[in-house]
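call fold(seq) -> C-alpha cells
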Amino acid sequence: MTTSNHTGVSHTVFYLLGIPGLEDKHMWISIPFFISYVITLLGNSLLIFIIVTKHSLHAPMYLFLCMLAGTDIILSTCTVPQDLAIFWFNAGEISLSRCIAQIFFLTSTFVCESGILLVMAFDRYIAICYPLRYTTILTQALIGKIGAVIFLRSYCTIFPVIFLLKRLTFCKSNILPNTTCKHIILAKISCNDIRVNIWYGFFVLISTLVLDVVLIFVSYVLILHAVFHIPSQDARHKALNTCGSHVCVIILFYGPGIFSVLTQRFGRHIALHIHVLLASVYILIPPMSNPIIYGIKTKQIRDLVVSFLFPIQK
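ret:
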C-alpha cells in the first residue's frame, strides 16, 4: 500500500481499511451487515412486487412507498456488498473512478430518499386535510412528475461533486480509514485547497436534507392543526394512525444521520471505529426497517404479505 507524500504523485488507486482498529473482528462485524442486507433485499423486493401487482394498492401513498423501497435497495447495494468484500476477503482496493462513482450514487440516492420522505409527508397532508380531493390532486401523472423531479434534484445536485473531486491531486496518502468512499474523506487526502468542496457539501446539506426536514416539520404542524380540529375522537385517532409508519421511518432515516454528524463535529475524542460504525448505521438500518414498519403498521400491506407468504389451500 503506497502512502507517498511526493507532490508529483497523484494516486489513482486507494485502499479502504474497513473498520479501523477492529480489523481482527471484521468477520464478526460482517454478520449483522449480511443479515441486514438480505432483509433489505427480500423485504423491499416483496413490497415492490405486492404494490405493483395488486391494483388495490395503486393509491398515491403506496406508489410513493414503492419508490422508497426501490431507493432503499439501491442505497444498500451502493455500500454493503463492498463492505462484505472488505470484511471477508480484505478486498479494499478501489480505483479513483470507482470511488467517485460510489460517492455520486450513494449521496444522490440518500438525497433522493430524503425527497421521497418529503413528498410522503405532503401525501399525508393532502389525505388528511383534503380527503375528498385526495385522488384528484395526486393523480398518477402528477406522481410520475414528482418522482422525476426528485430524481433530477438528487442527481443534478450531486453531479458537480464529480468535477470537484476530479480536479484534486491525491498525493498525501491512498489509505481511506472507512468502509465506503465519502466526499470529504477523499478530499482530505488531497494536496489541494478543498474549501470549495467543503462549502459545496454544506450547500448540498442545507438545500436538500435540511430543507426537507423543515418542510416535513411544517407539513406535520399543518396535519396536527387539522387533526385536532376534527370533532370525532375516533376520526382523530384514525387520521394520526395513518401517519405513524411515516413518522417512524423519518426518525430512523434522519436520526442516526444527525447523531453521526454531531459525533463527527463534537466528538473529537471518540475512537475512529465508532465514527465509522455510526456512519454505517444510517445506511443499514433505514432500508432494512422500512418494509418491516410498513408491513406491520399498514393493514392492507400486512394482509397481502400474509396471504402471499401463507396462501390458504382451497
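Residues 78 and 106 are 6 Å apart (CA to CA).
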